[in-house]
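FORM 7B - TANDEM STRUCTURE REPORT

SECTION 1: FIRST PROTEIN
SEQUENCE AND TOKENS:
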Amino acid sequence: MSRQRFCRVCEGWHDPDAWPHNCMSFNWNRSDLSAPMLICDTMEPVQSQLDGQMYDSKAKLRATYKQAGMVEVGNDSSVTDPKPFKRPKPKREEVKAAVGKAFSRAGLGA
């Protein structure tokens, strides 16, 4: 049994080593998407956290942030380096008191 691949031109299956000549007209560099992905400047109106005005342009919103000296932060962790969490050291006296209280409630205390 030979390996076969799906042909996008005739929608049939062919052996890759013996591909039919009439199925060679397919442009392999073309994407399956109907249009290229574009990032546009317009967006749904949002209220600025800086001045409270509504903006529907990303560039205008970022310009107000830049003018005020602010940094726009999304989910990029390289901009805001979070400090590692430091677990507080437990106080031994409070731990012993809590364990003693639990033992006495359970009837195991002396």
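SECTION 2: SECOND PROTEIN
SEQUENCE AND TOKENS:
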Amino acid sequence: MKLPLEIRALGGAVLAALLSLGSAWMAAIPIKTMPTFSAVSTFTSSAGVSSEIVISPELAEQGHQFYDMSCSHCHGDDAHGDEGPDLHNLSISNARIAATIKKGIKGEMPTFAKKYDARQISALVAYLRSLR
């Protein structure tokens, strides 16, 4: 028995949708399982030495103050994005966050290397990790 063309087309569309959803789900698994908060922030200081700074609630609160001074006008008061992207649940490493704050992004975000030292940048990283 031969199925009508419409039913065969519908079956093909359903199969394509399932394959698409399945591949999207498989790609999202590593993102979902990445830790969103680390107890230790590791990055390379300006002297080229790897630094580990324990992230505490106090450090996150200091970072919140720095965020309000330097970041909120682009990323929004609640860090959900405005001109800049949403900063909640970042899936990049603490070192990458620190490097981005320090070096900026050409044409998109200024550098804060002269404004904040390594400890202050760690405070900003701690604050960003506290965002849920």
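SECTION 3: OBSERVATIONS ON SECOND PROTEIN
The domain at 38-130 is CATH 1.10.760.10 (Cytochrome Bc1 Complex; Chain D, domain 2).
The two ends are 56 Å apart (CA to CA).

SECTION 4: SIGNATURE
Preparer initials: ____
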